[in-house]
Each structure stands twice: as C-alpha cells, then as structure tokens.
Design brief:
The complex is a heterodimer of chains A (about 210) and B (about 375). Chain A is an alpha/beta fold. Helices cover about 45% and strands about 10% of the residues of chain A. Chain A folds into 2 domains: about 50 residues, RecR Domain 1 (Helicase, Ruva Protein, domain 3); about 140 residues, Dna Topoisomerase Vi A Subunit, Chain: A, domain 2 (3-Layer(aba) Sandwich), CATH 3.40.1360. Chain A contains 9 helices and 6 strands. In chain A, the strands form 2 sheets. Chain A has a 4-stranded parallel β-sheet with strand order 4-3-5-6. The mean pLDDT of chain A is about 90. In chain B, the strands form 3 sheets. In chain B, strands 1, 2, 4, 5, 6, 7 and 12 form a 7-stranded mixed β-sheet that branches. A 6-stranded mixed β-sheet of chain B has the order 8-13-14-3-15-16, with helices on both faces. In chain B, strand 6 and strand 7 form a beta hairpin. The longest helix of chain B is centred in the middle third of the chain and has 40 residues. The chains are: A alpha/beta (about 210), B alpha/beta (about 375).
Chain lengths: ~210, ~375
C-alpha cells in the first residue's frame, strides 16, 4: 500500500502490530482518527500511554491493579479464606462477571509447559504457597484450562501444598448449558458420567 | 454383521490423478496397470478417506498433483445391509487448513473420524514392518488398536504429549543445571496411568491377534511352518512407576525418557527363530499378509463390521500355491469389499477364472481409470 503521507504510513504500521488488525482495518482506524477533533485524539493517546505506564500488578494476587494491592484483595466483604487459582486476568474478568464467586484470586501468569520454556519459576507459584501458609487459606479452587498443561500445573501445585491443611478443589468439567448431549464430544460425555452429581445437588445449582 | 464398502469415488488432483469418478463393485475390484500408472495412488486415496492421511507420505503437499494447489477426494461409503451411506470429503489446499467433512459437517478433531470406516491396507512397502525398526511395528499395532477403541487413541495422544513435555523438562534441567523433583514427579504421575492402560490393552489385543495370525499363516503356507508373535515390553518386568523411579539418573543424563511403552516392540518368529533373519522373502511376505488378515479379523470381531481390504501388488514373490490359498481365503465369507492391484491383466484373469466371482476390472494408465468389463 502506498500512502501520500509518511505520518499516516507510520500510524498504519503501528496499528497493524495489534492482534487481529490487518492493513485495511488499520487504515480505516487511522482515517477515523483524522476526522476526529485533535483534542479527542490526544485524549485517546494519553489514555493508552497512562494505561501502560501506571498499571501495576497486585502484590498479593498478581492481578492488574491501579494500586499496589488490587480492589478485590482490599474488599473486606470478600471471603479471604478461599482462593481461586487462574491463568491470567482474563479468567478473573470471566469469573467476576458471573457474580457467583466471593473469594479472592491468585493469577499464575500462565501454565507449566517446558516445551514453551515455562517452568514453575516463571509463574507465581511460590507466592501462592506463601499465601496459603500465611493467610490461613482454607480452600483453593483450581480454575485452569482442561489441557494437559493445565492438569500438570494443578498436580504440581497440589504437590507443593501437600503438607498444608488446605482443601484443594477444581472447577467442574462437563456439558455446557443449553448444549445437546448428542453433540457433546465423547471424552467430555464420558467424564460427565464418571463425575455425575446427586440429583439434590443438581437442583440446588439451578 | 455389517459390511462397509466404497461405492463411489471422485478424485481430483490427488497425486497423478487429474479428475476421475469411479463406481466400484461391492465385493471384488481389480486394478491393473504398469508401474507408475497410479494403481497404488488409487488405493491410497481410499485409505486417505478412512484415516485422514496418506499411507505413504506425511507431507500433504506431496499428495497434490504437480503444479496444482489443492486436491479433493470425495467418497460415498455404504453399509451393504442397511443401505446407510456416509459421504466423506477430504479437501487439502496449500496455505489452508486441512479439512475432512462427514455428511457435510467438517470434523473439529480428525481423530474422531478414525475407526468409523475400518480398512486394512497391505502394501509392498510393509516389508519394512518385518525388516525395519520397532517404530513401524508400534505404528501398526497402535493404528489397529486405535480403530478398535477411541479411548486407546486418546490415551496414546495424551501419553505422547506428556512424554514431550517431560523430555523438554529433562533437557532444561541439563541446560540450566537445575533440578525440580516435584515437577518431574508430576509428569511421572500423569504417565503411569496412561502407560499402564496402553500396556494392558496391548497385552490383551496381542493375545487375541496371535491365534488369528497362526491360523492365516497356516492356510497361506498350507501348514508348512509355525509362526509366533511376541509382545516385548519393559513393563512386563516391573511397574511403570518403579521403572520411572529407577531410571531417574539415566533419564537425566540422556535428557529424555529412556524407557516406557514408547519403546515397546513385537518380535516375529518362524519355527522358533527370528523371521527377520531366518525367513525367506516368500515366508516374510506370507507372514506379513497373514498378520494383516489377522488384524482385519480382529477389527471385524470388535466392531461387528467387515472392513475394506486393500491388497497392493501382493502376488509378487508368492508362489502359485500360496497365491491360490490367499485368494481362496479372502474370497470367503469372513471378508468384505476387496481391492487388488497387479501389473498383469492375464495373470489376474487366470487366478480368478478358478473362482465363481465376477470381479470388476479397472485398467489404470497415467492416472486415468477405465472400466474394462462393463
């Protein structure tokens, strides 16, 4: 693509670096910004810069935060004796949106995968073990993806916590709401049958 | 008992084929052509639709006709008894994701397709199974057991993933001069149940396979020799958990998982001696065919379905008596649709003149298929 202005070309190239943005979309976004008031665009740029510069990671749960300790960890109405262990902040957002969980979180920052060069030392595993020891945590809920790497991470953390009196649970895996049995893959279906629930529990969850 | 057969095949740009639409017979199909005409490629196309891959080359680009950028296979399979049909389409194009479509619905995981349409292929290249390394034999047995049982395939895929991660970890320990016993133990714990499941399955199925193999070998060779097939596994001596424990030092210095079911082997014997060293070419070929027919019957018994049988260039190296015995066997009621390829039309005609069958004969030349006795 040829551009009449070097400035526009540079801007387009920057936008192309974003995930899911191709050259054409990038140009559309740049042209849109050109139509806007200078003030509006300045605000847009400053917001992005401030976001990147001022963002912090919570010292306790490693979730993104505006302060040294995040608003979830500071919320006294939440149950500090339960920790939900997740891979990244996107999972925190997903679980928060359910409004069902009132405990705290622990963001690992990934899962163990030696092939990708990620070991326990690259994740916030040690700080999780410390938290369980210091903060009188009664239960940790493993909310990791149902992959081999997710399982490995769960196994590893459980081993590290072997000597603690903490209860370790994992989120249920099975058939999605509104799904139809005949379209569920066999692995999921077999597992759902193996880990079936008593009817009373089933009713309670509705 | 059900019989699955390929009714119609539409090939486009697969290997040396331009465009061909062929209607097959439900029992016996003979394909005749010179070397390089495309006989094996036709059988490979059938294999592809059942296993989502070529029997010969794992590089998809090599399966596309020269100077083209895609190939497409479209097959209509039918259950002989119920008339139920399965339409399977394979579309492979450069720079695009491979897609296998069953009755207009693309598969999300190709492994779900394996086993739906059972098939056994006997190819000349298979002699490597006897002469070559253990890898080929493991592939054959794994391929067979995966057709019988989806959970075997799932266990195998998971096992291999864990092994890969474990080996990477061992390599990192070495490079970074670190060691994390707990993390290694985590991988061991995941390997043990998977490996044990695979091992037990292999023991059980080898035990079922052996009498079938001996029966078919006896028939083809007219009872001249006695053959055997022994499953060799390190897990026969000790449990997998103990093995991984005692191999710790060895694994760390080799930077990989040195022993496990991924190193298992099957030993073929004739009259008590290794077939690899003491069998003649004809005996080895007879063994190979008997083994494949035994696998065929194993699948038939498990799935209650007669698979498709592909016999590529099998008459080579077999004497007249063995050839007749073989044909008599596969024409029996325990076999379904059969494809046989050969270079000589006359030889084929002579062999089949002795049987009361009406084979459909196809002549293949430069990737063009012509029906001879239509």
């Amino acid at each position: 693509m040829n551009f009449p202005s070097k400035l526009i070309e540079d801007a387009v190239n920057e936008f192309t670096k974003l995930p899911g943005i191709g050259k054409k979309t990038a140009l559309r976004l740049v042209l849109h910004l050109l139509k806007e008031e200078t003030k509006t665009v300045e605000m847009f740029g400053e917001t992005v810069i401030r976001m990147r510069q001022d963002i912090q990671f919570c010292q306790k749960c490693h979730n993104v935060s505006d302060h040294p300790v995040c608003s979830i960890c500071l919320d006294l109405s939440r149950d500090a004796s339960i920790l939900c262990v997740v891979e990244n902040m996107r999972d925190v957002i997903a679980i928060e949106n359910t409004h069902q969980y009132k405990g705290l979180y622990h963001v690992l920052g990934g899962v163990i995968s030696p092939i990708d060069g990620i070991g326990p030392d690259n994740l916030h595993v040690d700080s999780l073990v410390d938290r369980v020891k210091k903060d009188e945590v009664k239960e940790i809920i493993m909310a990791l993806n149902p992959t081999m790497e997710g399982d490995t991470t769960i196994f590893y953390i459980s081993k590290r916590l072997r000597d603690q009196s903490v209860r370790i649970t994992s989120i249920a895996r099975g058939i999605a709401f509104g799904g139809e049995l005949e379209y569920v893959d066999e692995l999921t279906l077999a597992r759902s049958i193996a880990t079936r629930l008593p009817y009373e529990n089933y009713l309670m969850n509705h | 008992m059900q019989t699955v057969y390929l009714k119609e095949l539409h090939i486009a740009n697969f290997k040396n084929y331009v465009q061909s639409k062929i209607t097959f017979g439900e029992k016996l199909n003979l394909t005749v052509g010179h070397n390089g005409a495309g006989k094996t490629n036709l059988l490979d196309a059938i294999y592809y639709l059942c296993f989502c891959k070529s029997y010969f080359s794992s590089n998809e680009l090599q399966n596309i006709r020269h100077e083209q950028n895609y190939f497409r296979l479209d097959g209509i399979f039918e259950m002989l008894q119920t008339k139920q049909t399965e339409n399977i389409v394979a579309k492979i194009a450069t720079h695009r994701k491979k897609s296998i479509i069953r009755n207009d619905i693309p598969y999300k995981r190709l492994s779900e397709h394996i086993g739906l349409l059972p098939l056994v292929f006997v190819a000349p290249d298979d002699m490597q199974l006897i002469k070559g390394s253990s890898e080929g034999r493991r592939k054959l047995i794994d391929g067979t057991l995966s057709q019988l049982d989806q959970s075997y395939l799932d266990a195998l895929i998971s096992y291999n993933k864990v092994i890969q991660q474990r080996n990477s970890l061992l390599k990192q320990f070495h490079e970074r001069r670190t060691f994390n016993a707990t993390l290694l133990e985590t991988y061991n714990q995941q390997l043990v149940p998977l490996g044990t499941q695979i091992h037990e399955n292999r023991i059980a199925q080898t035990a079922l396979l052996l009498p079938l193999l001996q029966e078919y070998y006896e028939r083809i060779s007219s009872g001249k020799e006695r053959v055997n097939c022994r499953y060799k596994s390190v897990l026969k001596q000790q449990s997998f958990a103990d093995l991984l424990q005692s191999n710790l030092y060895q694994d760390r210095s080799a930077q990989r998982t040195t022993e496990g079911i991924h190193r298992d082997d099957w030993v073929f014997e004739i009259n008590g001696y290794p077939l690899k060293k003491y069998g003649s070419q004809g005996q080895q070929k007879s063994f190979l065919i008997a083994l494949k027919l035994a696998i065929y019957q194993l699948i038939r018994q498990h799935k209650n379905i007669l698979p498709i049988l592909l016999l590529d260039d099998i008459f080579d190296k077999l004497d007249e008596l063995r050839t007749t015995q073989l044909i008599e066997t596969v024409m029996g009621e325990h076999f379904g649709q059969i494809f046989i390829s050969d270079t000589q039309l006359e030889r084929m005609r002579q062999i089949f003149d002795n049987f009361e069958v009406n084979p459909k004969i196809f002549k293949i030349e430069d990737g063009v298929v012509e029906w001879l006795n239509g």
